[in-house]
Amino acid sequence: MIVGIARCECMIYDAGSLKEKRAVLQRIISRIRQKYNVSVSEVDYQDAWQRTAIAVAAVASAKVPAEREIQNAIKLIDSFPEIERTLTDIEWL
Question: Which of 3, 26, 70, 80 could form a disulfide with 93 if both were Cys (CB 3.0 to 4.6 A apart)?
């Protein structure tokens, strides 16, 4: 069994309030949950308007399927024009 965790720091430049930021995050997180077999959550900067950190975790019997799910989730984050991924760390356990 292998666990992969990707931590993506992102900027939401057009967010003028926490409410606007959370609306963007809710759309992204719910879409990831619908499309991929991963766990996803905002893990840092909850009180910052334009900055966030999203964690995506996948568990599989081998590294390749876990990595595929994580990479697909990261690509989906990148497909949203209102958010910019600035830093990504992937850890394997």
Answer: 3
Helix (H, G, I), strand (E, B) or coil at 37: coil
> 3-state class of 39 per DSSP?
strand
Pairing mode of beta strands 2-11, 51-60: antiparallel
Question: Could you give the number of structural domains in the chain?
Answer: 1
DSSP 52-79: EEEEEEEEESSHHHHHHHHHHHHHHHHT
pTM of the predicted protein model: 0.91
Residues paired with residue 85 on neighbouring β-strands, in sequence order = 10
Q: Which domain holds residue 18?
A: 2-92
pLDDT, tens digit (0-9, with 9 covering 90-100), for 3-60? 999 999 999 999 999 999 999 999 999 999 999 999 999 999 999 999 999 999 999 9
